[in-house]
Write a structure and sequence with these properties.
The complex is a heterodimer of chains A (687) and B (546). Chain A has 687 residues and is an alpha/beta fold. Chain A is 32% helix and 28% strand. The model of chain A has no long low-confidence stretch (mean pLDDT 90). In chain B, the strands form 4 sheets. A 7-stranded antiparallel sheet of chain B has the order 2-1-5-4-3-6-7, with helices on both faces. Chains A and B meet through helix 3, helix 12 and helix 17 of A and helix 1, helix 5, helix 6, helix 7 and helix 9 of B.
């Protein structure tokens, strides 16, 4: 070896059940580990995963970057274990957080629980001040009022403070004055102000997002601090990069200040992984399908990029932040099948979870799940080593499905096939919703199926939705961890403008972009991203004057020339999305957005050795009787071991490909091909 | 293909595909519409019908429009069946051909396959203004239908895909915000067309015969589910009465009465004891009364019940013509949503009399609404600002009611202040919860809202209305819980003096600087207040809720 040391990129994805770790070396070596997550102290599972890598030969000092996907913000939101914060709101409007926009979460449930308030009413304070829609000060914020508020905050001794004043997105001078006074009086106290957290209009989502940021910051901050200390204690000196809901990474010290952007950290990593696979395979339009035990996340990926939603609702909580736009369906491997009062077969959203899990796990689960249906029809074999260790109990699965079959008046086989078909229909509906909503026909999209259960359904979706192809990545169960390393550092700037798009307004828009770019450059510079490695994406959310919802229009530049083309581009997008446009109507710019990303070192690729074009004989694991869709009887189907397949191998359907973290089904009339990176490409044989 | 040819699996798959048709229609309508009442407050519905006009699938939209469009489709068929052509689009809003009130405009589209009528897609949306003397078209004091804006029986808005430019002109000339109204009609039409495209894909995937069978089966399925849910309830009878504050014309209270009889898997709802139709605009058209009954069944029996016409099969609704709940033309109906809310509350209390173990304390049904004319500071166009202010829902066995939300048959959001002040000549000075407004009980009622509107334009025409201002008719507690509070509004002149109002349903021309203050009611409490756990009492105090 030369004197050059091996360097490692490491991705650690802490999920609800498992923590996945992937390490890729500069020489192309790849190590993976899967350890149980430790929800009570997430840093512990993180360290266990790291230790497995060290045991496998990674020198801690050789880790050059450590990427991290975390559920710490998500769990805090779900369990309500958030910090205590004070809200400062314009006098008369502190209850914006209480009536939550005036809608009840469930329409027909008269006994629904009162939603948990992020900040209790006793800690929501009225601020005497008022700014008008056009930014004029109607009532100034005087210093006596500031002093009174500081005293009120002092009495409450909160862990954080949120400031959200009406029209703070137009003019932030009062919010800034409060922030400055709070920081002077309470050094070190996290202060979240709406004009910094989410500079967009509509007071409820903005206030709620600011409050969420405040109540998460202490939790996320503590976790990241302890994680950083722990990994340093192991001798890792690399920077820790945290995945955000937008699919970009943040350096850990910044992640605390943007805690609300970590809520979809895990799913975003999966999409980033799928996007990287699509790009590597030269696929322009793809659908990422992440199917795990309890739920499914589906996302459209175009040109390697996922569409961004600016407002998402998670657990009834609106979050204004660039977030990968995903559809979620309650149909994972553990989703329970049941019969409704009308006699119809349903699947989900109830899930058997990881414990007791499907009946086939033999841990006491009695209800039939999607996994059980796969065991009955034989796509999952008794000898299929699920998640590495589990041995499946076919008898228990058959009994669970049999109980439903009796009530449906169908055979056990037909019921199992039905459960899989209904679950597949849920997936198809989610795929439709993410593509059609963007005016994209799913028939032009390649499916990237991952997660433990995604590859089981890829072939059916391929056929049902008439997709051109489906890709099952090399490690479908570890794609999220790998996706962490595919992400760039990302900084987002956005501001609501509300300007009619006319020549006179262009100057102001151009000026905003210039200022935003300056701020982004400062941050990327601080983060050590050289100017040559920066990329910018500009967009303007527009609507017709009078409309209430915006469509985001990508810009091919931020100068006057690009902005002059904006109206035309908006009409076109409106037509694609909604089927109609009004080219004679005036267009207004609601919000401008600029994101800057800095490319990080990419892991080296390693290619799979070429095979003979057909699977080697030792790749055949067994032939087992499988009931395939559209058939009444089982037929012997070959099951191959994924790790013994070589580049260029072609497998005609029907076939099954098994690996530690997933099982892929190929239907009759389809063919699977192994590409040089090890991806499995499925397509109809006659296509 | 006969219904038997669809096994439970294929049916479920097709049924889910049919629901995706209405989901996708809803997405198109909401996101491309202009009026805040559609786009911010979600006052619209999308649905799919079979060739005969029976409602097959409706997404989860606003309850007051449950099942509503199907009567309009049938009226359209009755009149135009022989001349229907592909690409036709009908518009209708008449409350007496299956509509609700004139601002709720129905847009319907017959879907053809191989030259024959196959299905209908339809949407109904509440338009900000559809003409008439009052901005926003509504007003309790409008005392016949002819005052309630432009009335359209089913007529073609598009013929074979081509817009009827003259009809667009006619509508445009009758409404205050022509641009927004016509754009919203186009958005509704686009939603119908997107539904047609999606349905064509479903047919392509499954075959026309299977889809038609699924239409039939969807109705049977909803019927079976409703029957199963009803059969699971104890047989019994019960009744309740409730009152509207007046008759819409400053007259005496109007009685709503409901008697429920549940036997086996059937339910009879008898409204015969309700008042005759009234002079003011509180009359509830038949489509809306039906919607109230569907709401009851969903709440009582099966919240996940798919809304289609099959769900009504096991239910008999008795209501004589000429009733306030089944008016004859030309009775005025524009604020019928007030009556809907009171009817829903009365039905739920009747259900509580039959099944006391299911009783829930009443929620607020004050339904304060403001419609204000004026010029938009942003677009410079005439507009009609609209807002609806929710209140407290009732406490229940499992906990407290919700604060400041829209209740029962409605679920429109509160107009965001930052939208209101950008789009309308008004300023909102407060929007706060009212301490002590929720009824006491083991589960306390949710709180009402105090909201102040400052009018910024000289001589704005403002229609204001609310119900439940009479202290005799406040939300009633259940199982020993306390009552909620009334809803009322006050109007202050620019110098701060309170104006005397004839009633809580008025249309006024107000000078710049006038202030409207609404205080909506809190919900009632459930259970003995002595049983409220001490830590919750402490929290109530600390949070300034009592």
């Amino acid at each position: 070896m030369s004197g050059r040391r091996t360097r490692w990129l490491v991705g650690v994805d802490v999920g609800g059940t498992f923590t996945d770790v992937v390490a890729i070396a500069t020489d192309g070596r790849r190590l993976v580990a899967k350890v149980p997550s430790t929800p009570d102290d997430p840093a512990e599972g993180f360290l266990t995963g790291l230790d497995e890598l060290v045991a496998a030969g990674v020198e801690p000092g050789d880790v050059s970057l450590l990427f991290h996907g975390t559920t710490v913000a998500t769990n805090a939101l779900l369990t309500g274990r958030t910090a205590r914060a004070v809200l400062l709101a314009t006098a008369g409007f502190r209850d914006v957080l209480g009536h939550r926009g005036g809608r009840r979460p469930r329409m027909y449930d008269l006994e629904q629980p009162r939603p948990r308030e992020l900040i209790a009413r006793r800690d929501r304070l009225d601020v005497r001040e008022r700014i008008a829609a056009e930014g004029t000060v109607l009532e100034p914020l005087d210093e006596a009022e500031v002093g009174r508020l500081l005293d009120e905050v002092a009495v409450r001794r909160p862990e954080a403070v949120a400031i959200a004043l009406l029209f703070g997105y137009v003019d932030d001078r009062h919010e800034r004055r409060l922030e400055e006074a709070l920081l002077a009086r309470f050094p070190g106290l996290p202060v979240s102000r709406s004009s910094a957290v989410a500079r967009e209009f509509r007071e409820y989502p903005r206030t709620a997002t600011t409050a969420l940021n405040a109540v998460l910051r202490p939790v996320v901050g503590r976790y990241l601090l302890s994680a950083a200390e722990a990994i340093r204690g192991r001798g890792v000196r690399a920077a820790l990069l945290v995945m955000t809901s937008s699919g970009g990474s943040l350096r850990a010290p910044r992640a605390e200040a943007e805690a609300h952007r970590l809520v979809l950290s895990g799913p975003a990593a999966g999409v980033a992984g799928a996007a990287a696979v699509a790009v590597a395979c030269g696929v322009g339009r793809a659908i990422a399908l992440d199917m795990g035990g309890t739920s499914v996340d589906v996302c459209l990926v175009e040109g390697g990029r996922a569409p961004m939603a600016t407002l998402q609702e998670i657990e009834g909580q609106p979050i204004l932040a660039p977030t990968i736009e995903m559809a979620t369906a309650g149909a994972g491997g553990g989703s329970i099948a049941w019969i409704d009062a009308g006699g119809s077969l349903k699947v989900g959203p109830q899930s058997a979870g990881a414990d007791p899990g499907p009946a086939a796990y033999g841990r006491g689960g009695r209800e039939a799940t999607v996994t059980d249906a796969h065991v009955v029809v034989g796509t999952l074999g008794e000898r299929t080593p699920l998640a590495g260790r589990l041995v499946l109990d076919r008898g228990a699965a058959g009994e669970a499905v049999g109980r439903l079959a009796g009530r449906l008046g169908l055979s056990v086989d037909a019921t199992a096939e039905g459960i899989i078909a209904v679950a597949t229909a849920h997936l198809a509906r989610a795929i439709r919703s993410v593509s059609v909503a963007r005016g994209v026909d799913p028939r032009g999209c390649t499916l990237v199926a991952f997660g433990g259960a995604g590859p089981l359904h890829a072939a059916r979706l391929l056929r049902e939705l008439r997709l051109p192809a489906a890709i099952v990545p090399l490690h479908p169960g570890l794609l999220s961890a790998a996706g962490l390393m595919a992400a760039d550092l990302r900084v987002d700037e956005a501001q609501t403008m509300l300007r009619v798009l006319e020549p006179a307004a262009l100057e102001e828009l151009v000026a905003w972009f210039a200022a935003a770019r300056h701020r982004i450059d400062e941050r990327l510079g601080d983060d050590g991203i050289a100017s040559g490695r920066r990329r910018y994406l500009a967009a303007a959310d527009c609507r017709y004057v009078g409309q209430g919802y915006e469509l985001s229009v990508p810009l091919d530049g931020t100068g006057a020339a690009a902005l002059r083309r904006l109206a035309e581009a908006f009409h076109a997008i409106h037509r694609t999305t909604y089927g109609h446009a009004a080219p004679d109507e005036p267009v207004e710019v609601v919000t401008l957005r600029l994101s800057g990303s800095g490319a990080l070192p990419r892991p080296a690729e390693r290619e799979l050795a070429a095979g003979s074009g057909r699977p080697a004989t030792d790749a055949l694991h067994e032939r087992r009787a499988v009931l395939l869709p559209g058939r009444r009887t089982r037929r012997p189907v070959p099951a191959y071991r994924r790790e013994r397949l070589r580049a260029g191998d072609r497998i005609p359907g029907p076939a099954i490909v098994e690996q530690l973290d997933a099982t892929t089904v190929v239907l009759a009339g389809q063919e699977a091909r192994v590409d040089r990176r090890g991806n499995l490409l499925l397509a109809e044989a006659d296509a | 293909m006969r219904a038997r040819a669809l096994d439970p699996v294929r049916f479920e798959i097709l049924h889910s595909a049919l629901l995706s048709v209405t989901d996708e229609m809803g997405a198109v309508l909401k996101r491309s519409s202009y009026s805040p009442i559609i786009r911010e407050m979600d006052d619209y519905s999308c649905a799919l019908f079979d060739a005969g006009g029976r409602l097959v699938a409706q997404g989860d939209f606003i309850p007051s429009q449950l099942g509503a469009i199907s009567l309009v489709v049938r009226a359209t068929l009755a009149r135009h069946r022989s001349t229907l052509a592909p690409g036709d689009v009908f518009i209708a809003n008449s409350p007496y051909v299956g509509g609700a009130h004139t601002p709720d405009v129905n847009i319907l589209h017959p879907v053809f396959r191989d030259g024959a009528l196959f299905a209908w897609t339809g949407t109904v949306a509440h338009h900000a203004d559809f003409g008439g003397p009052n901005p926003g078209t509504e007003g309790a004091d409008l005392n016949e239908l002819y005052a309630e804006g432009l009335i359209l029986p089913p007529v073609r808005l598009y013929r074979r895909g081509e817009p009827d430019a003259e009809l667009f002109d006619l509508i445009g000339a009758n409404v205050r915000d022509t641009v927004a109204t016509l754009a919203d009609l186009r958005a509704q039409t686009a939603a119908c067309w997107s539904g047609e495209r999606r349905l064509a894909e479903v047919v392509e995937d499954h075959g026309a015969a299977a889809v038609e069978t699924a239409f039939e089966r969807a109705l049977d399925h909803a019927e079976r589910r409703t029957r199963a849910a009803l059969a699971a309830l104890r047989d019994g009878e019960g009744e309740a009465e409730g009152f509207l504050d007046d008759d819409g014309a400053a007259g005496p209270p109007t009685r709503i009465h409901a008697r429920l009889t549940k036997r086996g898997d059937r339910l009879t709802v008898d409204f015969s004891g309700s008042a005759a139709q009234v002079p003011g605009a509180l009359n509830n058209p038949w489509a809306s009364t039906r919607a109230c009954v569907v709401f009851l069944v969903k709440v009582l029996a099966d919240p996940a019940l798919t809304s289609n016409d099959g769900a009504l099969r096991p239910i008999t609704i008795v209501c004589p013509e000429g009733s306030v709940l089944r008016p004859r033309p030309p009775a005025a109906v524009s604020v019928r949503h007030l009556t809907c809310q009171r009817t829903a509350d009365t039905l739920l209390r009747a259900a509580g009399a039959v099944w006391p173990e299911k009783a829930v304390a009443s929620g607020m049904v004050g339904f304060f609404g403001i419609n204000a004319g004026g010029t938009s500071p942003r677009s410079g166009r005439p507009t009609a600002a609209q807002d609806v202010v929710g209140g407290g829902t009732g406490g229940h066995r499992l906990g407290d009611g919700l604060d400041g939300v829209d209740t029962y048959m409605s679920n429109v959001g509160l107009l965001p202040v930052e939208v209101a002040e950008s789009e309308y000549p008004m300023r909102i000075l407060r929007s706060e919860l009212i301490a002590g407004s929720g009824g006491d009980g083991r589960g306390r009622g949710g709180l009402g809202i105090r909201r102040d509107y400052l009018l910024l334009e000289e001589w704005q025409t403002v229609t204001l209305y609310c119900e439940q201002s009479d202290p005799r008719f406040v939300p009633r507690g259940a199982a020993g819980g306390g009552d909620g509070t009334p809803t009322r509004f006050r109007v202050f002149a620019p110098d701060g003096t309170e104006m005397r109002l004839r009633s809580q349903k008025v249309t006024l021309r107000l000078p710049r600087g006038s202030l409207v203050r609404v205080e909506s009611g809190g919900g009632a409490g459930w259970g003995d207040p002595a049983e409220r756990p001490a830590p919750l009492r402490t929290a109530d105090e600390a949070d300034g809720r009592v």
